[in-house]
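Annotated sample (chain length 419).
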Amino acid sequence: MRAIALLLLAAASTAHGATLSVSPGEDDQRALQEALILAEPGDTVLLSAGRFRLQKGLSLDVANVTVRGAGPSETILDFTGQTGDAEGLLITADGALIADLAVENAAGNGLKSKDVDGISLVNLRVEWTNGAKSTNGAYGVYPVSSKNVLIERTLVRGASDAGIYVGQSRNIIVRRNIAEMNVAGIEIENSYNADVYDNLATNNAGGLLVFDLPDLPQQGGHSVRLYGNRIIANNHVNFAAPGNIVAGVPSGTGIMVMANRNVHVSENEISGNRGNAVMLVSYTQSFTDAAYNPLPRGVMIAGNLYADNGSAPSFAGGAEIAAAVGGTLPPVMWDGVTSYTAPGSDEAIPADGAILATDAPMLNLNLGTWGTPLSAAQPSVSPPATGQMPAPAAVVLPEAQLTRAAAIRGDITASLIER
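Output written by the structure step:
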């Protein structure tokens, strides 16, 4: 019979808590969940190297607990035998730090936090190992309705929606991650104040998405900075399940901004995406939420490096539009929707912010009014604009949260980020 070893690291001080050590054995499910239940604030649940075979999802609801393995190639939470569609690990307590481990083949999402203040996901691997399938879990790492979110040095492969997804959250840093072979590499949705930088998104259907959707508890997404990322060859077939919103993301999309405001896209390397390097679009589905604004506005695109994009757009009408402007799409494409009518109103509402691309020609489809079909596009190309927009303020996370994360030294992504 296996016991959980409780090792007091700092008997004279509760500041560092205790360590509950767990190794793989005959009953991984019970042992690991028991450790997560017994942990007290400030404790560390330390998972040894090896493969933990799990049949159900795990949950953590104790505040300020660290769950740490021996590294993402050494400590593996294996959910291949999981029944149901629950998360691999669900976190509902503030101040959690999850680090140095892998989650494989979760039936649902890999790691999810909900209603958490201070969630740090550091040096992880989340993967569906049998390749890109619509039956894979939707999200690899999935903070939702959370604040003070840190995701760094994490590798996600095979998510049928988004590898790294942050939804309805605020005060977010997503940095130095790798997202590959997902439908969407990284997605920021209905969130406020996000910095997304130094990431690699490659071989997804879409590299980096910033969305705002109606009928959600938090909407009006704003103040997002996308900078210093490498958005490379996101030409994977879109394998999302039918009806999913990302099923409509065209393969070959580098960056897509939909229905968000105050978004700055700067100093990124965007290359080899056969569709749009940067696509700015309105939400196109019908909606009944009178408070929802479906237009992208206040979007600034500057200082990016583009190469070999736009050669074979896969969205409906894309080939015809490309032919009309010389055979290849310019780096930036905007649908040109400048007004919409709110449900229950007859008054057109203009966009409350400009679209400004200063680093490349921009293709404007000139659709004008929301709801105008793409078949009515009147494409025109304008040279790089001049001018500036004030950038969103940098996101600052609590010092204590950053200090704990900085103690995690392993880095599976460094060699890939540098390649």
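Annotation: Confidence is low (pLDDT under 50) at residues 1-15, 414-419.
Annotation: Helices lie at 28-38, 318-324, 399-406, 414-418.
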